[in-house]
User: Fold this.
Amino acid sequence: MPAVEIKPDVFWVGVNDRTTDLFEGIWPITKEGVSYNSYLIDDEKKAIIDLTKSIKGDEFLAQIDEVADISKIDYIIVNHMEPDHSGLLRTFRRIAPQATILGSAKTKDMLESFFSIKDNVQVVNDGDTLSLGKKTLKFFSTPFLHWPETIMTYEASHKILFACDAFGSYGAIRGSIFDDECEHFDFYQKEALRYYVNIVANYSTRVLRAIEKLSGIPVEVIAPSHGLIWRKNISLIVNLYKKWAEYASGDTEPGITLIYGSMYGNTEVMMNAVAQGISRTGVPLEIFDGSRTHSSYILPSLWTKRGVIVGASTYEVSLFPPVAEVLNMAAQKHIKNKKAAFFGSYGWSGGALKGLKRIIEPLKWDLANTLEFVGSPTGEELKKGERFGASFAELIKK
Ligand SMILES: Cc1cc2nc3c(=O)[nH]c(=O)nc-3n(C[C@H](O)[C@H](O)[C@H](O)COP(=O)(O)O)c2cc1C
Ligand SMILES: [Fe+2]
Ligand SMILES: [Fe+2]
Assistant:
């Protein structure tokens, strides 16, 4: 993708990645892709803010060449050390050894441990500024967005906040990089939530702290390191982030996530009855087959919805493993304080419910109701399942 001038003398350069299957080696992006946004400021001194993952290096360097001579770059600003932004740092250093690398004190240590880079590194503290000539950059410490060393960079003349992972999303750029020109706005909004819950949500308290800290700064462009550049809907993405971060400890939306898993269809039959019961109440419901859906796609529903119903059969005296795997990831992400219910089929002595309790106990999920049955459900049991779904939905409505 050619370089894009986002404001006079400020350019998007970066890699539009449509070939990586798993982000961080965990999260599927095969269909969606992702972009690693890097920004070049062409002033008397030239600065580049974040680099990209170590793929398509030639393409990235050619983009920069369109704007400026790489060997004459003065500063490399490392907002975040994660290799999706720093992967090309060693290559860059070889081409532009004179460029000073700027980052937080923790970044300085990490540069040594990750890349053996020690020379020509300058530490910037919260509130420090750097003059590039006509433009001045200001640095803000924003730890754990998304690593402990992370900073954000602000350019005052155009009021651009280079926010790194914050306000980013999965999704390769589909033509325009600007939110107001984008024809796939719903897609990016959905992918911003998936990215938030997969990557950032564990640090929601830090997100709220950063939003509060930056609230007094006039921002006309949010330039994140993944996905769309926000210049029209700034308050929309900031408010979404605030809302999602508040979900970590506060109340969420009246809706139900139903995660089920079934080997031979017995639990699945019951799942349909339960869903029927819920549908009559008007409470929003999302259903996921835990065996066939990666947790990456289920976590956003769990994060935003008040209720969870788990439907799983017993497998070797415990919860059906693909469903357990999804719930373990929810535990990893500290998805707490849900109202929950459980149903499932077993063959002889059961064990799924015990397995579920082991996982959700530390998450303080309130297990409101359970429905277990042997083998395939009878007509009477299916009727019970409908009532079970409806009464749980009524509980969620309150
Ligand atoms: C590999 C395997 C392991 C199982 N382990 C147990 C078990 O430990 N205890 C039990 O009560 N039932 C066990 N069952 C029986 C199932 O829970 C039972 O067949 C149930 O009806 C399956 O429901 P499903 O078709 O929704 O998966 C097992 C079944 C399979 C295939
Ligand atoms: Fe990151
Ligand atoms: Fe990132």
About this structure: Residues 82, 84-85, 165, 225-226 surround fe (ii) ion (ligand 3) (CB under 6 Å). Residues 379-397 form the longest helix (19 residues).
